[in-house]
Amino acid sequence: MDNARRVAWPGWLVGGALGLTVVMWAGWQAWRAGWWRPVTPDVAVHAVWGVDVSHHQGAVDWVALAGHHNLQFAYLKATEGGDFTDRRYAQNLEAARAAGLKVGAYHFFTFCRPVEEQVAHHLRVATPTPDMLPPALDVELGGNCQQVPAPQEVRARVTAWMNAVREKTGRTPLLYLTPEAWRRFYGNRDTGWPLWLRSVWTTPASGSGWTLWQFANRARVDGVTGPVDLNTFVGTRAALDTL
Question: Residue 146 is part of a domain; what is its CATH number?
């Protein structure tokens, strides 16, 4: 309009806003590239670190990865749903073991396949041997079936999977939850199972009772070409060996 007044913003305000935008953009790009992590465990308290990988990481140089003084274990994607087997699971299992890492296998739980099928498929592919870490069940919303059951139904199915695997293997599985899954299905409360919690922006809440904490999902480590997940164990290496 002809009578509208043009507001003249102070130069320092414009410059400050521009500078903040640049810093935020640079931080976002650094996080996406894996060179910056919002949160990292205190190594003096949590000295036992590990990775979790799938075929998405491609060929891993496990000897180079194991050369990192904190990286002492690896969880490997083995199965998903009722019939998917990660194509690099067997190769990763053999190579990670040979590099001296403690290894475990995890199953990506889908909402649209019967629990019995998922249990049977995982144990056909990845029944744990005595030297392995316990099996783990990955429960998350991303990449899952479009139809998400009610929280009580999900909890019942998860419990059925965990109980069946424990009964058949004699090992108590870990339950991996993203923040969204933990909040939606468990209300951020105790799950009744050893918890593998993802929290890449903040330290897990006091009292969450985690056994493993995934603190980074785009980290850079020797031996892996692209980004990889980093985790820490709640105890010592001796405790990890007896998990």
Answer: 3.20.20.80
